[in-house]
Amino acid sequence: MKELQDEKDGTGISVLCMLQSVKPHVARNGEKMCFLTLEDLSGTMEAVVFPILYAQRNGMLEPEQVLLIHGKISARDGENSILCNELQPGEQIRQLLAGRQLCIKLRSDDAKRQKAVTELCRCHPGETRVCFYLTDLRRYVASRRIAGVELTAPFRDALCRIVPEDCVGMVPAANGKMSANTKNEGKAP
Fold this sequence. Notes:
alpha+beta, five-stranded mixed beta barrel, 4 helices, elongated
């Protein structure tokens, strides 16, 4: 959210974030709308959901839910907020992420972080595959000790305490099963 504070009025954006709170509101014309407080690892930001979109999505707006928001920046009184054009709930995000795996950039000699990430993933079992991109070797490897992980806000927060946020991303899943020595040519996150 921090980087969105510097965007110009009217800039189109898409952001993956956590819904912190929902404040219902009645517009001047009597229609229902709401204000959202959104958060990611960099901070919080307010967003506006106008009546038409609110009528379509109000049933899914629950705090602590991950949302993919498409909209544009509104700059007023020195503060930026998001005018929402579309909200995609967690289930739709999971569909978007199907066929992708979580990739974490580390050096091959960083055994301490590799172990910490592996232990964290084992505490959050799920279906999303995990791989490491070893920056010094320039290759992808999968841990035999991680079956998969559930991508949740607590997992994300804990992961970003182990590795910087810019060392975590989603990449296309390798065809077949990756082993600890399998290369997957492609770009790192």
